[in-house]
Amino acid sequence: MEKTYRINTITEYNADNNHKTLHPLVSVIDFSKANLRNWGNVDTIRFEYGLYCIYLKDVKCGDMKYGRHYYDYQAGTLVFFSPNQYSEIENPKVSYQPMGFGLIFHADFLIGTSLGKTIQQYKFFNYQSNEALHLSDDERKMIMDCFAKIEFELKQPIDKHSKKLISSNIELFLDYCQRFYDRQFVTRENVNKGILERFEDLMNTYFSSEKPQTIGLPSVAYFADELHLSANYFGDLIKKETGQSAKDYILNRTIEEAKNLIYENDKTVNEIAYGLGFKYPQHFTRLFKQKVGYTPNEFRGLN
User: Which of these, 170, 173, 184, 174, lies nearest to 233 by C-alpha position?
Assistant: First the structure.
């Protein structure tokens, strides 16, 4: 049995967590002030987000899932949600005291701000499983300082400076999160290399199977899903590890497969194109020449 909890307004969410509404579109929440949580006998709680919600977790409160996958979501981690997303937690079926902090804001608050123009650049709002931001002690202090500055502005009487100062501090907070994610890609290098190796294995399996003929050209989304990662996180990881976008990495690998097929057998260019998953042979020929400098037939003649 599942219970749905919708997060649509700042006022309602503040009330549910024993907080006074200081601004109708923005809130900083200290969850230690909330009442004990007890979701009854339901098995899972589904959270549906109508707001931007960022959580700094400080207590175990059930395993969190996004789609089919579990978050790597332990104490001292940050997770990010944007409107129209959802998550689920497995109900611990015992009362517990929420701990941690949240930054919650409505998309309408971003209208007319510089952050409103750049919010889509923070791709971690679309990260999924095994992708929470793990903070060092110093990073946590910085995050808490950002929260404190935003809360300070929320407590001031609203004037012509309020929106700019609040949005600027939220933007600063997100910029720090981007920096910390970049650090995490580096410090988790061994984990990332393991993912890269699995990615290579998956590509080998893909090209040696019938999938190119049945599914088509291999895609970023396909491999991300096979690795239980969001497409955005997977793309960022591949970029950090290889210097190429995931799309370019896959295309380059496809061209290498094409070179081998052109060299090793007598199939026509059209047969090779269809075998690799191209719908149109002319698309294959154009891409091959762009990447190699020769058409497939010219390349065959050279070799």
Answer: 184
The strand pairing partners of 46, in sequence order, are 4, 88
What whole-number distance in Å separates Cα of residue 277 and Cα of residue 280? 9
Instruction: Read off the pTM.
Output: 0.64
- Which of 57-61, 143-147, 165-169, 206-210 is the least confident region? 57-61
* Cα gap 97→31, rounded to integer Å: 8
- Strand order across the 64-66 sheet: 2-7, 44-49, 86-90, 64-66, 69-70
Q: What's the half-sphere exposure (Cβ side, CA atoms, 13 Å) at 10?
A: 20
CB-based contacts of 110, cutoff 8 Å, min separation 6: 116, 119, 167
Distance of CA 121 to the CA centre of its chain: 11
User: The tokens of 11 are what?
Assistant: 């006022």
pLDDT at 147: 97
| Residue type at position 212 | P
